[in-house]
Amino acid sequence: MTETLARAPHAADDTRITICDPRSGELVGTLTPADADTIDDACERARSAFGSWSRTAPAARGEALAAAASVLEDHADELATLTQRETGKPFDDARGGVLAGVGTLRQYAELGPLHQGSRLAGDPSAVDYSIPEPRGVVAVITPWNDPVAIACGLIGAAVVTGNAVVHKPSERCPHVGERLGELLSPAFPPDVLRTLTGGGETGAALVSRPQVAMIAHVGSTATGERIARAAALTGAYVIRENGGNDPLIVDAGVDPTWAAQQAALGSFANSGQICTSVERIYVHDDVADAFVDALCAEAREWTSNGALGPLVDERMRDEVHRQLTESVNLGARVLVGGTIPEGPGSAYPATVVVDCTAVMPVFSEETFGPIAAVQRVTSFDDAIAAASDDRYGLAATVLTPSLEHASRSAAELPVGTVKVNAVFGGAPGGSAEPRGASGSGFGFGPKLLDEMTRLKVVHMGTAEVAS
Fold it and tell me: Which residues fall within 8 angstroms of residue 460, CB to CB, at 6 or more apart?
């Protein structure tokens, strides 16, 4: 049985979801997806719980969320181990994701009670103001690549503003999602947080339910687009952070070794399975040779030093390898990596491929794997134009010593986040809104509290008193 399951580490049908460890192919467990009655019951219970929870004092909601954060922190090692077993994420990275979730819950526990409307300027004899009100039942649909941190952000912002949540975690890590719900839900009144196990059919059924007032989705663009179409029929409000095809521009004048380290981090961290991974690299001719040599050395080091975990399953590995193979058939050259290793699990080496063009899958599609795809350019203008010519609009990075080029990048790149001289990072409290096929709405940070609420404007005039 283990040998058979190892060929498909994550399998789902109408009656079960089977998960195997992507490192070894060994069975992790089998779960039964929620049926229609279970989905209806979860949504109805959440709607019933919403009434009293929405009237709970914001400070008390914040205290409940802070208590949930402490419980999660106490179980960080347990959830990290389970995340590693289901997704292959290295333990330290998995634990970091859990602790990031803890920090996010605590942040919203503090920000939630401070979330407020505004005083409006009007007739001096009247009072005009706006107040934020919770939306109702929020369907939260989350991915597998950082399952705890992402879920905590959306759940935390939803419940602290007075919403009830029905959470559908990814079918690729259902045990993580189920356990997360078991740990967090006791901090709140019954049914404020419900968890559903299931795959795409369960998610589709959830977002179509009339009780759902809002859908918060992080995941693939194809799924996000289907959710948006479903919400058009129900009237649910939607925010979604979906796929990315993030460019990295390496400008003339930068240190090529440092630039290669940045490119490797952006391309290979979490085995390339991050929505903001570096997907397309445009390197100036002046530094291209030295940069590519250094990037190849980085790729060999990432593969050999054990920092690179497996891809989440063999289905994902097959897709990554397909994109690389088709790109090679169109003229790309693999310098390092690019071969499927023997043995169990779904490992894939850090890979460097050059001579890439816009028509190749490694440049035109989101490649959720450790592939650094490179194209040489003759000018910064050419790099900006090429980087901007894409249907996605999540993020972009520019490595440059030029203040002019940094400023132009911020002004011209059509993405939600522009990063200059750092592939990852950002100040606490930041928010970003994706563009194009990457989604819409603020999916994290203080502005997520605005997304989870609706503003009501109140005008209070003066009544005439009967004489």
Answer: 126, 127, 128
The residues, ordered by sequence, that sit 6+ positions from 71 with a Cβ below 8 Å of its Cβ are 183, 184, 186, 187
Helix/strand/coil for 237: strand
Contacts of 305 (CB under 8 A, 6+ apart): none
- Say whether pLDDT at 5 is over 70: no
Q: What is the pLDDT of residue 455?
A: 95
Of the pLDDT bands very low, low, confident and very high (cuts 50, 70, 90), residue 15 is confident
- Centroid of chain to Cα 304: 28
Three-class secondary structure of residue 446 per DSSP: coil
Q: What is residue 371's three-state secondary structure?
A: strand
Beta-strand pair 118-120/127-134:
antiparallel
Overall size of the chain counted in residues: 467
Q: What count of Cα atoms within 13 Å lies in the side-chain half-sphere of residue 419?
A: 23
pLDDT in tens, 447-465: 999 999 999 999 999 898 9
Q: Which helix (H) or strand (E) holds 199?
A: none
The amino acid at residue 3 is E
CB 316 within 8 A of CB 240: no
Q: Which residues pair with 460 in a beta bridge?
A: 127
Query: Per DSSP, what are the bridge partners of residue 274?
Result: none
3-state secondary structure of 129: strand
Q: Around 135, how many Cα atoms within 13 Å sit in the side-chain half-sphere?
A: 25
Query: To the nearest whole percent, how much of the chain has pLDDT over 70?
Result: 97
Pairing outcome for strands 392-393 and 395-399: unpaired
Type and span of the H or E element at 112: none
Structure-token pair, residue 346: 């779904």
